[in-house]
Please model this.
Amino acid sequence: MLRYERKYLVPYILLDSMRKRFLPFVRPDEYALKAGNTLPQYTVRSIYLDTRNLECHTEKVEGVELRKKFRIRSYNDYNPEADTVFEIKRKIENRIKKHRAFTEYKHVLPLMQTSDVEKYIHKEENDRGLKDAKRFFYHVKKRFMQPTVLVIYEREAYHGLIDAGVRITFDKNIRSSIYPKYNELFNNHGLKHLFPSHFILEIKYYTDRMPIWAKSIIQEFRLRNDALSKYAIGYDVNTKYNIFTY
Model:
Protein backbone atom coordinates (compact mmCIF):
# COMPACT_ATOMS: atom_id res chain seq x y z
CA MET A 1 0.00 0.00 0.00
CA LEU A 2 1.26 3.48 -0.86
CA ARG A 3 1.82 5.84 2.04
CA TYR A 4 2.13 9.60 2.25
CA GLU A 5 5.18 10.89 4.07
CA ARG A 6 5.84 14.46 5.22
CA LYS A 7 9.11 15.63 6.77
CA TYR A 8 9.88 18.77 8.75
CA LEU A 9 13.17 20.10 10.11
CA VAL A 10 12.55 21.32 13.66
CA PRO A 11 14.85 23.05 16.20
CA TYR A 12 15.51 20.99 19.32
CA ILE A 13 14.30 23.91 21.40
CA LEU A 14 10.75 23.05 20.26
CA LEU A 15 10.94 19.32 20.99
CA ASP A 16 9.34 19.29 24.45
CA SER A 17 6.49 21.62 23.56
CA MET A 18 5.83 19.77 20.30
CA ARG A 19 5.77 16.41 22.06
CA LYS A 20 3.18 17.75 24.52
CA ARG A 21 0.98 18.93 21.65
CA PHE A 22 1.07 15.55 19.91
CA LEU A 23 0.59 13.34 23.00
CA PRO A 24 -3.24 13.71 23.30
CA PHE A 25 -3.59 12.29 19.78
CA VAL A 26 -1.06 9.44 19.79
CA ARG A 27 0.08 6.35 21.69
CA PRO A 28 3.69 5.15 22.06
CA ASP A 29 5.02 2.65 19.54
CA GLU A 30 5.05 -0.74 21.30
CA TYR A 31 8.33 -1.81 19.70
CA ALA A 32 9.97 1.39 20.89
CA LEU A 33 8.81 0.77 24.46
CA LYS A 34 10.46 -2.66 24.40
CA ALA A 35 13.85 -0.98 23.99
CA GLY A 36 13.68 -0.16 27.71
CA ASN A 37 14.00 3.63 27.42
CA THR A 38 12.02 6.25 29.30
CA LEU A 39 10.73 7.50 25.95
CA PRO A 40 9.34 5.23 23.20
CA GLN A 41 12.66 5.38 21.41
CA TYR A 42 15.08 3.08 19.62
CA THR A 43 18.19 3.43 17.46
CA VAL A 44 17.86 3.04 13.70
CA ARG A 45 20.91 1.93 11.70
CA SER A 46 20.97 1.88 7.90
CA ILE A 47 23.57 1.23 5.24
CA TYR A 48 22.49 2.80 1.95
CA LEU A 49 23.72 1.30 -1.30
CA ASP A 50 24.38 3.24 -4.48
CA THR A 51 26.11 2.86 -7.83
CA ARG A 52 29.69 3.97 -8.45
CA ASN A 53 28.49 7.22 -9.99
CA LEU A 54 25.89 7.79 -7.23
CA GLU A 55 22.77 7.42 -9.36
CA CYS A 56 20.43 7.30 -6.34
CA HIS A 57 22.00 10.42 -4.84
CA THR A 58 21.77 12.28 -8.14
CA GLU A 59 18.11 11.34 -8.64
CA LYS A 60 17.30 12.70 -5.18
CA VAL A 61 19.20 15.97 -5.70
CA GLU A 62 17.59 16.48 -9.11
CA GLY A 63 14.11 15.76 -7.76
CA VAL A 64 13.27 12.75 -9.92
CA GLU A 65 9.67 11.83 -9.05
CA LEU A 66 10.03 8.06 -9.55
CA ARG A 67 13.11 6.87 -7.72
CA LYS A 68 14.37 4.12 -5.41
CA LYS A 69 16.67 3.85 -2.41
CA PHE A 70 18.32 0.60 -1.37
CA ARG A 71 19.27 -0.01 2.23
CA ILE A 72 20.12 -2.61 4.85
CA ARG A 73 18.63 -1.70 8.22
CA SER A 74 18.81 -2.95 11.79
CA TYR A 75 18.19 -1.52 15.24
CA ASN A 76 19.68 -0.69 18.63
CA ASP A 77 22.95 -2.34 19.74
CA TYR A 78 25.01 -5.09 18.19
CA ASN A 79 23.45 -8.53 18.23
CA PRO A 80 24.25 -11.20 15.63
CA GLU A 81 20.64 -12.39 15.92
CA ALA A 82 19.18 -8.91 15.40
CA ASP A 83 16.38 -8.57 12.86
CA THR A 84 17.82 -6.98 9.74
CA VAL A 85 15.88 -5.68 6.75
CA PHE A 86 16.88 -5.60 3.09
CA GLU A 87 14.70 -2.84 1.72
CA ILE A 88 13.85 -0.95 -1.44
CA LYS A 89 12.10 2.34 -0.69
CA ARG A 90 10.25 3.61 -3.75
CA LYS A 91 9.24 7.24 -4.10
CA ILE A 92 6.26 7.67 -6.43
CA GLU A 93 5.64 11.41 -6.65
CA ASN A 94 4.65 12.28 -3.06
CA ARG A 95 3.94 8.72 -1.88
CA ILE A 96 6.09 5.88 -0.57
CA LYS A 97 6.08 2.10 -1.09
CA LYS A 98 8.53 -0.34 0.51
CA HIS A 99 9.69 -3.80 -0.55
CA ARG A 100 11.16 -5.59 2.47
CA ALA A 101 12.84 -8.89 3.28
CA PHE A 102 14.07 -9.99 6.72
CA THR A 103 17.03 -11.97 8.00
CA GLU A 104 19.44 -11.90 10.98
CA TYR A 105 22.44 -9.59 11.06
CA LYS A 106 24.86 -12.53 11.06
CA HIS A 107 23.56 -13.43 7.58
CA VAL A 108 24.20 -10.03 5.95
CA LEU A 109 27.69 -10.84 4.70
CA PRO A 110 26.80 -14.33 3.39
CA LEU A 111 23.78 -12.87 1.63
CA MET A 112 25.76 -10.11 -0.04
CA GLN A 113 28.38 -12.64 -1.13
CA THR A 114 26.02 -15.34 -2.43
CA SER A 115 22.58 -13.71 -2.97
CA ASP A 116 21.17 -16.99 -1.67
CA VAL A 117 17.80 -15.67 -0.54
CA GLU A 118 16.28 -19.15 -0.31
CA LYS A 119 18.78 -20.04 2.41
CA TYR A 120 18.93 -16.84 4.46
CA ILE A 121 15.73 -14.81 4.05
CA HIS A 122 12.86 -15.45 6.47
CA LYS A 123 10.02 -17.33 4.86
CA GLU A 124 6.51 -15.86 4.72
CA GLU A 125 3.23 -17.53 3.82
CA ASN A 126 2.86 -15.62 0.57
CA ASP A 127 6.59 -15.67 -0.30
CA ARG A 128 6.54 -11.89 -0.35
CA GLY A 129 9.86 -11.68 1.51
CA LEU A 130 11.59 -13.92 -1.02
CA LYS A 131 10.15 -11.94 -3.92
CA ASP A 132 11.26 -8.64 -2.42
CA ALA A 133 14.71 -10.05 -1.63
CA LYS A 134 15.11 -11.24 -5.22
CA ARG A 135 14.06 -7.79 -6.42
CA PHE A 136 16.65 -6.18 -4.10
CA PHE A 137 19.52 -8.37 -5.25
CA TYR A 138 18.54 -8.08 -8.92
CA HIS A 139 19.09 -4.31 -8.78
CA VAL A 140 22.15 -4.45 -6.53
CA LYS A 141 23.99 -6.98 -8.67
CA LYS A 142 22.91 -5.59 -12.04
CA ARG A 143 23.94 -2.05 -11.14
CA PHE A 144 27.06 -3.01 -9.15
CA MET A 145 25.78 -1.18 -6.08
CA GLN A 146 28.04 -0.77 -3.07
CA PRO A 147 27.59 0.40 0.55
CA THR A 148 27.83 4.19 0.34
CA VAL A 149 26.48 5.81 3.50
CA LEU A 150 25.91 4.65 7.07
CA VAL A 151 23.14 6.64 8.80
CA ILE A 152 22.30 6.27 12.51
CA TYR A 153 19.76 8.12 14.62
CA GLU A 154 17.44 7.79 17.60
CA ARG A 155 13.77 7.50 16.63
CA GLU A 156 11.00 8.46 19.06
CA ALA A 157 7.88 6.83 17.62
CA TYR A 158 4.11 7.09 18.06
CA HIS A 159 0.91 5.85 16.37
CA GLY A 160 -2.35 7.73 16.03
CA LEU A 161 -5.02 7.00 18.64
CA ILE A 162 -7.92 7.41 16.25
CA ASP A 163 -6.20 6.06 13.14
CA ALA A 164 -3.50 3.47 13.83
CA GLY A 165 -2.22 3.97 10.28
CA VAL A 166 -0.90 7.41 11.24
CA ARG A 167 2.69 7.39 12.46
CA ILE A 168 4.55 10.27 14.11
CA THR A 169 8.31 10.07 14.61
CA PHE A 170 10.98 12.38 15.97
CA ASP A 171 14.35 11.42 14.44
CA LYS A 172 17.12 12.81 16.63
CA ASN A 173 20.91 12.88 16.81
CA ILE A 174 21.19 11.97 13.10
CA ARG A 175 24.75 11.09 12.11
CA SER A 176 26.54 9.42 9.22
CA SER A 177 29.75 8.22 7.64
CA ILE A 178 30.54 7.29 4.06
CA TYR A 179 31.66 4.06 2.40
CA PRO A 180 31.11 1.67 5.32
CA LYS A 181 31.66 -2.06 5.12
CA TYR A 182 28.71 -4.42 5.51
CA ASN A 183 30.00 -5.51 8.91
CA GLU A 184 29.98 -1.90 10.18
CA LEU A 185 26.23 -1.45 10.56
CA PHE A 186 26.70 -1.20 14.33
CA ASN A 187 29.72 1.10 14.17
CA ASN A 188 29.50 4.21 16.36
CA HIS A 189 32.79 5.93 15.53
CA GLY A 190 33.82 8.58 13.02
CA LEU A 191 30.27 9.81 12.45
CA LYS A 192 29.29 13.36 11.50
CA HIS A 193 26.06 15.03 12.60
CA LEU A 194 23.66 16.09 9.88
CA PHE A 195 21.77 18.69 11.95
CA PRO A 196 23.45 19.45 15.31
CA SER A 197 20.63 21.77 16.43
CA HIS A 198 17.63 20.19 14.67
CA PHE A 199 15.64 16.94 14.50
CA ILE A 200 13.37 15.60 11.75
CA LEU A 201 9.65 15.25 12.40
CA GLU A 202 7.98 12.72 10.09
CA ILE A 203 4.23 12.30 9.67
CA LYS A 204 3.09 9.22 7.74
CA TYR A 205 -0.46 8.31 6.75
CA TYR A 206 -2.38 6.31 4.15
CA THR A 207 -5.35 8.54 3.33
CA ASP A 208 -5.06 11.37 0.81
CA ARG A 209 -5.24 14.01 3.56
CA MET A 210 -3.14 14.56 6.66
CA PRO A 211 -5.24 14.20 9.86
CA ILE A 212 -6.70 17.53 10.93
CA TRP A 213 -5.06 17.41 14.36
CA ALA A 214 -1.60 16.83 12.83
CA LYS A 215 -2.10 19.57 10.24
CA SER A 216 -3.17 21.96 12.99
CA ILE A 217 0.01 21.30 14.99
CA ILE A 218 2.18 21.80 11.91
CA GLN A 219 0.50 25.16 11.28
CA GLU A 220 0.78 26.14 14.95
CA PHE A 221 4.57 25.65 14.89
CA ARG A 222 4.82 27.20 11.41
CA LEU A 223 6.72 24.25 9.97
CA ARG A 224 7.55 23.79 6.30
CA ASN A 225 7.46 20.45 4.53
CA ASP A 226 10.99 19.71 3.26
CA ALA A 227 12.40 17.04 0.95
CA LEU A 228 14.83 15.74 3.57
CA SER A 229 16.83 12.67 2.59
CA LYS A 230 19.00 11.28 5.37
CA TYR A 231 20.91 9.35 2.71
CA ALA A 232 21.69 12.31 0.44
CA ILE A 233 22.44 14.74 3.27
CA GLY A 234 24.39 12.04 5.12
CA TYR A 235 26.64 11.73 2.10
CA ASP A 236 26.94 15.46 1.59
CA VAL A 237 28.03 16.30 5.15
CA ASN A 238 31.01 13.99 4.70
CA THR A 239 32.13 15.51 1.38
CA LYS A 240 32.99 18.85 -0.17
CA TYR A 241 29.37 19.07 -1.34
CA ASN A 242 28.15 19.83 2.17
CA ILE A 243 25.98 22.96 2.03
CA PHE A 244 24.02 22.46 5.25
CA THR A 245 24.65 24.76 8.21
CA TYR A 246 21.77 23.86 10.52
